[in-house]
Design a protein that fits this description.
The protein has a single domain, classed as ComB-like (putative 2-phosphosulfolactate phosphatase). It is 35% helix and 22% strand. The protein has 10 helices and 10 strands. Strands 1-8-2-7-9-10-3-6-4-5 form a 10-stranded mixed β-sheet, with helices on both faces. 49% of the residues are buried. The structure holds the ligand O=C(O)[C@H](CS(=O)(=O)O)OP(=O)(O)O. The ligand O=C(O)[C@H](CS(=O)(=O)O)OP(=O)(O)O binds next to loops.
Length: 257
């Protein structure tokens, strides 16, 4: 199996073979939580207007998305797993409802990776399941695309997720706790925990950095300008450790010591 690592929008456009589009903060973490909560299908679009049109067609659709990290007008929520979980705790029912996503990085990658033979979307929450699902296929070529910030600037978390998936594709041991601890200490993650990007609540950080939380891969099939994303169960993922950040977000938004 040949494994290539690329990044950003150009990397998605050129990606070939089995392609994994990676966005940890926050698009495909949100997809994974939505799928785990029963949303069917998850639909990814590149333009906010396409989301509005999907709601016309599917009035029970739930719309989640951002531009420049800010929630989109006319959408039900931002691109935020904590906002999603809060809404569900408050009575929002997701089971059997389409969940439409539009973001500046992840959903762009899945829509524009048109050379892909087969596409998955991934975050740390389902990195192990994604790798194990692909290993079953014994593909000749896999391309891992780290979408980064706004699909224009590489980010540590997406590169780390690609590293984890590559290790599991090769059958190597991946030191999850150590590598996630190093990620937690980066300027990027500490800045997000400190609330430096206002539309990005610090409570999203631990939800996005929970590793191997879900035992399903998310396969995406493009139908015109919409990607239809559905979970594929990979029970073997449960054989690998799950790692949840052990430094909870405190009242100041900073991780406690
Ligand atoms: O809003 C998001 O989830 C991210 C925030 S950041 O730009 O990565 O800091 O936006 P994205 O669409 O992943 O660029």
């Amino acid at each position: 199996m040949e494994i290539r690592r690329t990044r950003l929008l150009a990397g998605a456009v050129e990606a070939e073979g089995v392609v994994v589009i990676i966005d940890v903060f926050r698009a495909f973490s949100v997809s994974a939580y939505a799928a785990a909560l029963g949303a069917r299908p998850v639909l990814a679009v590149a333009e906010k207007e396409r989301g509005w049109a999907l709601r016309e067609r599917y009035p029970d659709a739930v719309l989640s998305g951002e531009a420049g990290a800010w929630p989109l007008p006319g959408y039900d929520m931002g691109n935020s797993p904590s906002e999603l979980l809060r809404a569900v705790a408050g009575g929002l029912r997701l089971a059997g409802r389409p969940f439409v996503q539009r973001t500046g990085a992840g959903t762009q990658g899945v829509i524009f990776s048109r050379k892909a033979r087969r596409t998955y979307v991934a975050s740390l929450a389902n990195a192990v399941a994604t790798a194990l699902a692909i290993r079953r296929l014994e593909p000749a070529r896999v391309t891992l695309v780290a979408m980064g910030r706004a699909a224009r600037e590489p980010t540590e978390e997406d590169e780390l997720c690609a590293e984890a998936i590559e290790a599991h594709l090769r059958g190597d041991r991946w030191p999850a706790a150590q590598r996630l601890g190093e990620l937690w200490a980066t300027r990027r993650v500490q800045g997000l925990l400190a609330g430096e990007l206002p539309p990005f609540p610090p409570s999203d950080v631990p939800l996005c950095l929970a590793y191997n939380l879900f035992d399903f891969a998310l396969r995406a099939r493009r139908v015109g300008d919409v990607a239809v994303i559905r979970p594929i169960r990979v029970p073997e993922a449960r054989l690998y450790p799950a790692t949840v950040p052990d430094r909870p977000v405190g009242p100041t938004g900073r991780g406690s010591p």
